[in-house]
Amino acid sequence: MHPGNRTTHWFRKNISRKGRIVDVQDLNALTEHHMAACKPYADYVRSMFPAQRPGDLAAVPYLPVRAFKRFDLKSVPDAEVYKVMRSSGTSGEHSRIYLDKETAQQQTRSLIDIFAASFGKARFPMLVIDAESTVKDRLKFSARTAAINGFSMFSRSRCFALKDDMTLDLDRVMAFLQTHKGRRIFVFGFTFLIWTALVEQLRQTGKTLDLQDAFILHGGGWKKLEDRKVSNVLFKQALAETTRCKSVHNYYGMVEQTGTIFMECAHGRLHASPQSDVIIRDPQTHEPLPHGRPGLIQVFSTIQKSYPGHALLTEDIGQTHAGSDCPCGHTGTIVEIFGRLQKAEVRGCSDAYS
Fold first, then answer.
1. Are the C-beta atoms of residues 189 and 218 closer than 8 Å to each other?
2. CA angle, 146 as apex, 168 and 152 as ends, to 5°?
3. Is 206 helix (H, G, I), strand (E, B) or coil?
4. pLDDT 10s digits, 49-94
5. 319: how many CB neighbours lie within 10 A of its CB?
6. From 224's CA, which of 40, 91, 189, 244 has a CA 20 to 30 Å away?
7. Are 162 and 169 in contact (CB under 8 A)?
8. Distance separating the N- and C-terminal Cα atoms of the chain
9. Where are the domains of the chain?
10. Phi-psi group of 204: left, alpha or beta (phi > 0 → left; psi -120 to 50 → alpha; rest → beta)
11. What is the pTM of this model?
């Protein structure tokens, strides 16, 4: 028996329960599972963290996200690998995330719960601000591919707004909107593409779209927009001007923890989902910091059985706030993103076209 199978019954019984708040005991069990099933991870934990069972989130052994670019980290035998997801790094290095069917299913269930909490359980006509070629190659399963296919669960029909050269196919988009006139449209895309291929191209042609009854969900690609001095507020203003859409929602997530995204509420705050959480660490000492103090973002998730991605130290800078501080009623911890750690490798998860 593969050592990872020892905790399969525990995983199904505990981690898969809907609405569950992250518990340190769940994370401890995942740490033990991955140490038993993934030798590189076990060697790392034993060398970097005390041999004790943590009693709070800050004491759970964390793994730098960059480790997935340097090592093959998986806790299932090769025969059980169902899918390999890759980040689209600009440096030539890519994170490799190994999924078995069970973990992939957990990601799907989690994403359904998060989406439904914000937009309901209906399925919508879906306008994807990307090219269809992005999802055609099943062997190159990138972060963009995973996100498009994942959110397509909530679509009744799907239209790709961009040609293969990443230019806007306005005729196709207009025909799609006419077909679904009077219905609520779900628009999805990565932040940088929505800006360059939708907003900027509409401005260049002097055209506008009528998406006043639609909602737009976007994430990733903020690094390049920061370089262009495009803030979240300016991003939403530009979309309102070019598409008349005022329901624009950002999300924070990464290929290393697919399925546990932080969704932006109506008040513009990113909340942790019921199966995730977040803390902040000092960039120099790695000591945990209280709410309101900026530092490195560490994210937690309880759905990663096939690879050790349950406690990850990112290269993003931000700060947290108590979920109870938000009038939206969502109690999940709030995370505020400030940008990348200076001199850190740019993740490039969605910034690169290829």
1. yes
2. 65
3. coil
4. 977 788 899 999 999 999 999 999 999 999 999 988 887 554 557 8
5. 19
6. 244
7. yes
8. 39
9. 109-252
10. alpha
11. 0.85
